[in-house]
Amino acid sequence: MEPMKIELVKPSELPEAAKRLSAEGTHPLTAMFGRDERRDENVKGLSIYCVFENTGTHEMEALKAVFKEGVPYRFPTLTYVLPAAAWYEREIQDMFGIVPEGHPDPRPLVLHESFPEGFHPLLKDVAKNTEARGERRYDIHVAHGEGLFEVPVGPIHAGIIEPGHFRFSQAGEAMLQLDAKLFYTHRGLEKIMEGKTPFEALPIVERICGACSIANTWSFCQAVEQIAKTKIPRRAEIIRTLLSELERVTNHVGDLGNIPGGVGFNPAISLGGRTKEMLMRLQEAVAGNRFLRGIIVPGGVSMDITPELRAKIREVLAAAKKNIEDLSEMFADQSNFRNRVRTTGIVRKSTAADLAMVGVGARASGFLHDSRRDFSYGVYPELPFEPALEKDGDVAARIKIRIKEFHVSLRMIEKLLTLLDEEQEMTLSVELPSVKGEGFGISESARGSNFHYVALDGEGRIDRIFVRSASYANWPALPIAVQGDIIPDFPLINKSFELCYACIDR
Fold first, then answer.
1. Is 506 part of any domain?
2. pLDDT by residue (tens digit) across 443-472?
3. Binding residues for Mg(2+), per the UniProt record (predicted)?
């Protein structure tokens, strides 16, 4: 991938420049984040980056605005120009104290009531071990009117999931409005990784999310390798691509077993769960752990996929394919299930585009976004494929996308195994030089694209890392998807997006 093109603008020019660089919303807003560069003699200020995907050139383009010390840390909000900027701006305000003036929802995003006012943890003068306890105001948004009532759900749930608070405004059973309050277990991983070498940070990157270990690690390593201007061995690229597709297959199967849980469709839950366990055990055979950790490293991969493992992958995936075919028949045969998933949890294409959604959530609404197609990384250019696309934007469409992508991934994996069989070069990794610079990486997880920005200082240590998961891009769509549906459909809609709490609590 080509390095990111960065254009310097004044803070006051951000909305107009963003409108231009986004090509009136045609080029999605990939990420927006802050960086403390007050100690850098060439900058001496706080910075905001706005990163866009140029769908014509297949390159990343960014705006950078610098706020010099002694001037107000304020800029005009981009949210009215780019609705996808809403969460990013609130997080920048929390973490750096840079205020998006005129933002339609200026509440804290990450830092809840228990944090003191004026605490901005990603500033360099805030120590990693700082204990911050205090109080701040946080208002839940609800609808008001005769006959309306509120239904609070969470933050502690009956299931074994992370905390999130959902406040529904109801008229009878119909959901009029949902306000989701998340980030209860934010771990400060971006702060923790400051000052570490890429290899020291690697185990943390792998654990941002269990379901996206490969996607996060691959994006991170791409960024580091881009800074080092280093090309990794072809065999490593094949193995990385294979692992990515294996992770995708495992997660799609898990999701296909989880979604029926929203309606108590137990035979489908059991078949999906059993098939996912087969694939998790396969991942353990490949990597020595169930989450494929420890293989992708800066400069390549740490181990090969042996002929014996390649044979096992083929054997297990053949059995998984039969199970998913049976699961698809279950879905098709059960009219009650079909009635529950059709026209439920609709996200329109225009909404998906406005929010810059990614992955299954975007493609189920007819918004084509797939970093495997949009960027040349791994050996995906040698694996011609068309991303699965649906247009209805409902739960049924998100199920269809996963089933289609499961079969596409199986064909990719077979091609990748053949490439490994034929590849003569056995080099797995190269050593990276320790250099200063900034770079980005992007890879397509099962949920959508994961974007990493990395800046290394003069000693080759992390000065700033920013992680934007697929879940971060798609969470804002959930409150829109539930509007007009009945409250018993919420678990079904929520599971169909398969949004992750850990991915945003980084």
1. no
2. 999 999 999 999 999 999 999 999 999 999
3. 190, 467
